[in-house]
Amino acid sequence: MVAAQNEAVGAMDAGLREHDDTMAQAAVHGFGNAWDALSALIEADGAHTHRFIGRASESGFPERDLADIVHHLCVLHGRYPGLIDLAASHGDPAEAAQWAADAAGAFAAERGFLARLVSAVGPLPSTPGQAEAEAAVAAQRHALDMLGRSDRRGCALGAAVALTLDWPGLRLVMDNVANRLGVTPPRLALPERYETAAMVEQVAGSTPVERALLFGAQQLISQHRGLWDLLAARADARSRI
Questions:
Q1: pLDDT band with cut points at 50, 70 and 90 for residue 18
Q2: DSSP letter string, 46-110
């Protein structure tokens, strides 16, 4: 598990160091328009496609593994200001200001829901390699902060869009936890897909902005995938104790 964690951290660091290279590659891939590219990214690599996260929404999933997911989600997305708040504070692109403000407001409720779940599930389950896991998730949180504060026009927004598109798959897991513990989930009030699509198409008026949107989205999904892999490795380690 430690090797997997170190590999995940190394991959994150490499991705951030190679920011410009990755953005240049995005143009070569020929994704088409920005919304189609973002939708395809979530369809292919969103949380719902990860075997561990997909199983976590099922009724028979181990409670200690659910607790581990909730605790680590809270580390990544439970702090203010979060990724969407940072993107909203940029005010750039200006055409996205209302969408970003709406998304930030809605995600505040998700943070509150996460905090309630963390309180309800109790302490983090004991797992071998805890120090390494903490270091890995801290690196992910740092990576998301960097994305949210990016000065490249469209980068922070792309990451924020990807988070809103990926979050419904995670809400299935959170709702599973809530139902088991008698916690009432709030209504998921993130912007509707059609609203997000309209905003993206309005913002992505130039190739550099479109590349930045896609880069930010790709990096957000990469961080999420790294966390799901880490949580799967932790669950496997606990099962061997």
A1: very low
A2: SGGGSHHHHHHTSTTS-HHHHHHHHHHHHHHHSSSS-HHHHHHHH--SGGGHHHHHHHHHHHHHH
